[in-house]
Protein 1
Amino acid sequence: MPDLILDGEVFTPGSPGYDAIRRPVNAAYREVRPRLVLLCRSVSDVVRALAYATATGERIAPRGGGHCFAGRSSTDGIVLDLSGLDGVSVADERVATIGAGARLGQVYAALHTCGRTLPAGCGPTVGITGLTLGGGIGLLGRMHGLTCDRLVGAQVVLPGGSVVDCDHDREPDLFWALRGAGGGQFGVVTSLRFDTVPEPMTTRIEAHWSDIAFDELVSAWQAWAPQAPDELTVNLTVESEPSAPVRATLFGAATFDEEPTRSLLQELIDRAGVAPTIDVRGGLPYHHLKDTFADPRELPERALRIRSEFFSRAMSHRTLASLLAQLDGPETVGRRQLTFTAMGGAYNRVAEDATAFAHRKERFLLEHIADATDPWVDRSWAAAHADGSGHVYPNFPDPALEDWARGYHAGNYSRLAAVKNAYDPYRFFDFPQAI
Ligand SMILES: Cc1cc2nc3c(=O)[nH]c(=O)nc-3n(C[C@H](O)[C@H](O)[C@H](O)COP(=O)(O)OP(=O)(O)OC[C@H]3O[C@@H](n4cnc5c(N)ncnc54)[C@H](O)[C@@H]3O)c2cc1C
């Protein structure tokens, strides 16, 4: 058995700090008690941790931000906590090297000081690595693509303990697979290199409707938002709660000034036929705009369940009517949310096989979010699935998915299986629905 001496720290049940560090952000997996949590502060720590796990035969789960909806960064074996590797540096005013344990809030703040940013997600505590490995959808994505589309290289510790740098020229198959297959599949990423983009000034958009005919609004959004100019992303949430009217919130960002943004939004409002209360505010650096949005998934005290699917065309009126009828059913027990995220734009200008992320023809993503015990999630997902593309975002893993290989990876699955065989032939990294 190798010694376990780390530059970082080792936490065991009962040791000071164990309870704080063992818990992932996702409340559904807070009771899982790992035998060890290894807080890594160097690449050598990761190598030592993998050697130790190999010798003991225990399952090891890498953890960045700890947000995985399927609990894949939790285990009763060894949690490899990478939060001690969270440096961000920028070279040549453009290429950022980011430690695998950094979270989005840190990344945006550090890049902002250099006038740069990344098209990445919203939640400030979401890990940059988990997000990037599964794709990375955000408010600048229709203009600049997925977070993984900006990845130019990564350092990875492989199951046997070797440390490799991968990019377009070195270990190209691994580099291809890291861009969209989902986290924890091939090795432990220790750092990521990104080609950043200039941080834009943005206009913040928020609008609210309540007590209206929501099918008109959702139809209008489906026809309009996925093909709006790339500079504008607006997402729509429709939510219900017991004893409250159903309400809808439009939230998003434009890299246009305030006036052109208002004119564009008027097109959507005219199509929907009902005016909202609306707040459009220009002149915000992107980094500040992100801080002004509360994420509907960021409710740490509630165990949430999320199911989702991509759509390559607008829903039929029949499907939409059934979806909305269920949202506001008489047996509503807690808050239920349908969140529509606009795709199109730069997301769709990359070939399906250019990276592991296969979902390049989709118009929007729909999430069904409720308390973990609410059976509505399955009913609502099934109602929408009638018109869905059958494709599912790897960053929203769904244990209930039947054909998960096609759902997450579509036509890229066989190449991913070959990469898995080459880099992790003994399935050192394994979990339900692993490649
Ligand atoms: C509040 C909230 C907001 C979100 N917002 C967005 C959004 O705006 N856009 C979007 O696209 N997605 C969003 N997501 C989904 C998010 O992208 C995924 O949950 C993602 O997997 C989270 O990564 P993490 O590092 O925080 O989670 P973790 O649970 O730490 O990791 C996720 C997966 O990656 C693996 N992993 C982590 N680090 C490494 C590593 N260094 N090497 C190898 N594997 C690793 C883990 O083992 C696990 O399988 C959101 C989720 C939440 C909960």
Note: The chain has a mean pLDDT of 95.
Protein 2
Amino acid sequence: MSVEKSASGDVALKIERRWAAVSILIIAFLTGMAAYAGIHQAVMPQTTVEIINPTTLHMTGEFIESNLGSALEPDGSVTVRAVAQQYSFTPACIVVPKDTPITLRATSADVVHGLLIQQTNVNTMLVPGYVSVQTAKFEETGEHLMPCQEFCSVGHEGMWAKVQVIDKPQFLAMASNKRRLSCAE
Ligand SMILES: [Cu+2]
């Protein structure tokens, strides 16, 4: 870098150095933050890893078809159970109430899939043999797309579901006469 030996050149150099220092500080801060988050997560691993037999999902246990969908828990929270398989999610449309803690429990019946709810931070992989658990809370009613975000073979691009967020009273009314809910058709 050549800088003219003049007063304006000195000023320019000074300003340039100051901004360089600011950008270095920003990078150092972000690096520190990433390191902290990484180390924090590494020293605190998931407390439980739930395993499940993917070949008997449809016959027995938590993920049989009649148990899939949204369930109202005694504490007022909602548990959503879903299964991914080439090339769909069951249920194809998930219904949840707004302003309610949601626990999503999902797994795969065949290969690795992904589950992503657009406009939210819900994003997890569904690995056969394991139950993926993620919590969420929706603050507004509306509809979100839920595509498979992990390439799972030729039909991957057609694999997606929907999430419908509805008002809580409406959800409670639906839950009062049905044990497991998915979107009203
Ligand atoms: Cu998939």
Note: The helical segments are 7-43, 168-176.
